[in-house]
């Protein structure tokens, strides 16, 4: 089932214009996976960097 976003700025539009199409399930899944990877990396990189710094100074 597709959901569309329409431009309703005119008072009496002769016909509706599609502004953007909604994301498909596959696209949503890809985005969710991409943001999950970014989240894990944003937590892991500082932790690994801290371990490297501690090991170097030890």
Characterise this structure.
With 58 residues, the chain is of the alpha+beta class. The protein is 57% helix and 16% strand. The chain is built from one helix and two strands, in the order ββα. The chain has a two-stranded antiparallel ribbon. The protein is rod-shaped. The relative contact order is 0.10.
Instruction: Give the SSE order as H and E letters.
Output: EEH
Output the strand order for the largest sheet: 1-2
Give the proportion of residues in helices. 55-70%
The average pLDDT value, as a whole number, equals 80
Say how many strands there are: 2
Distance between the termini: 59 Å
SSE-based structural type: alpha+beta
Can you tell me the residue ranges where pLDDT is under 50 for at least 5 consecutive residues? none
Q: Whole-number radius of gyration?
A: 23 Å
Topology of helices and strands:
Blueprint: E1 4-7, E2 17-21, H1 25-57
Antiparallel strand pairs: 1-2
Provide a compact summary of the structure.
With 58 residues, the protein is α+β, with helices and mostly antiparallel strands. It contains 1 helix and 2 strands, in the order ββα. Helix content is 57%, strand content 16%.
Keywords:
1 helix; 58 residues
